[in-house]
Fold this sequence. Notes:
By secondary structure, the chain is of the alpha/beta class. It has a single domain, classed as 2-Layer Sandwich (Nucleotidyltransferase, domain 5), CATH 3.30.420. It is built from four helices and eight strands. The strands form two sheets. It has a five-stranded mixed sheet. The chain has a three-stranded antiparallel sheet with strand order 4-5-6. Helix 3 (106-114) packs across helix 4 (131-145). The radius of gyration is 16 Å and the shape is globular. The mean pLDDT is 87.
Amino acid sequence: MTLLAIDPGKRTGWALFTQDGELVRKGVLALDELSATMYARDDNLMGDEWFCFNDWRIDHVVIENYVNDPGTPQGGQENPAAEVIGAVCYVAKRTGVPVVRQRAADMHHAMKFVGYEEPKTRSGRKKHVPDEDSAYLHGVYYLVGRGLMKPLPL
């Protein structure tokens, strides 16, 4: 199994894991870069396609779900996170790769699993978690939940 974890948005964080739960690499892509990096590939005569990301064959995708609430300041504005989710789900469906959607809050549970310290300002207020770290944490939550990665002992 190769897992691609995604934190969608204008800057899309991603993390790639091996079947053993090892992090291969993580990074951030703009929407147009993501579109060029993620595709369905067909290299055989059988007509089978598979989900590719940076030439890696992807077997599972986990993505932070995004709900656009009209009562928030973002309501009614452009929503690049929805565009990313749609693009990922399209390629995944076309290639038969399952997609798991997670709540944003699941990332906070994963922080405890790996001892990740949430970024804070000098005054101690919480800061935005970098997008690539968010994708990594969503991947960790998925892998721990499936018993493919062990959390740190508490």
